[in-house]
Amino acid sequence: MHTTILDHVKQGQTMTVENIVSLLTFPEVDSLYQAANECRHNNMGDDIYLRGIIEFSNICIKNCNYCGIRGSNTEIVPYRIPDKDILNTCQKMVDWGYTSVVLQSGEDPFYTTEKLAKLIMVIKETTPLAITLSVGERDEEAYRIWKKAGMDRYLLRFETSDPKLFKACHPDDDLFVRLECLETLRNKGIQVGSGFLIGLPNETLEQLAHDILFCTQLNLDMIGIGPFIAHPNTPFADQPNSFNSDIFYKTIAILRLLNPLAHIPATTAFDAIDPNGRDLVLQRGANVFMPNATPMAYREHYQLYPGKPCITESSDDCAGCVKGRIKRLGRTLGNDAGHSFKNPLR
Ligand code: SAH
Ligand code: SF4
């Protein structure tokens, strides 16, 4: 039964929620992981693309119930990294062999459309880096101006495709507004990354299966997912993850099989649940790595979840470590910008 479904998914046949639940409970994990790794190799090659992430502000007006930097967490030490330090870090990224920068922050109104447009333009003028923004829900005009300024990609997770679960997690947000943002970004020719949290409180395997199928329907250029990890200063402090780590890795593997041409990063939260987590994810379907490039002084203040790795390392340490990781895994460094494999003309 399971083996037949695995064969079907490998052949690109349409999957149902029941099929996905069956794969999520697949006992022969090794054959699932091997199929995902082969699929990654055949479609995306052996390159690992490096996208350095700069967490440039931890100030957020939203209150997502899972997030450690939610606005109501008064224990946060707020920071905004000065533009000159962001630009300096971008310069270093080029020397480290990174080909993209991801600028991420809380939803911080200080960063107006114009301020970020200016920053994007200066990065474009001074480096060859591709630019991804991940600053939450903004209006169509902002996405248009940033694209014009040189932004290549945008990262905005839908977090869960279940409207009720979405509401239980996001007191300030509406799932449909978020999906509209994704649609707007796509219509503007911006490469779109999205994804979800695995194992939100009281999530069922059927809901997870639906997230996997929904994510696939969105036909994303990049799929970023990670396990939910309870943060002590949030309303979800006492909520355990709804699943075990096998389910996290199986989710990556199934997404790879369903999305042969999507970029899939090994996100940082996998290292918070298992010191070897990101390596395993890279062997089970992922092809992108996002080294932390946030200057060291700020790192401890951007803890979306506890146990985040690399808090005490410098950006130089992370750059050295990632090269060793790629070598250890027998993979190669992606030398180009790693734009979407779905539409290389973008
Ligand atoms: N403010 C922006 C970007 C920063 S948050 C936004 O919300 O899009 C980036 C991601 O961190 C979120 O999409 C969410 O999935 C993840 N995250 C937040 N809290 C988390 C937690 N407790 N466990 C795991 N991931 C978390
Ligand atoms: Fe703010 Fe993003 Fe955290 Fe939500 S997930 S509270 S928008 S930083």
Task: Briefly characterize the structure.
The chain contains 14 helices and eleven strands. It is α/β, with parallel strands linked by helices and 346 residues long.
Give an account of the 3D structure:
The protein has 346 residues and is α/β, with parallel strands linked by helices. The protein has one domain: Alpha-Beta Barrel (TIM Barrel), CATH 3.20.20. Helix content is 42%, strand content 12%. The chain has 14 helices and 11 strands. The strands form 2 sheets. Strands 1, 2, 3, 4, 5, 7, 9, 10 and 11 form a 9-stranded parallel sheet that branches. It has a two-stranded parallel ribbon with strand order 6-8. Helix 2 (17-24) crosses helix 9. The chain is globular and about 55 Å long. The termini are far apart. The model has no long low-confidence stretch (mean pLDDT 96). The site of iron/sulfur cluster has 9 residues, from loops.
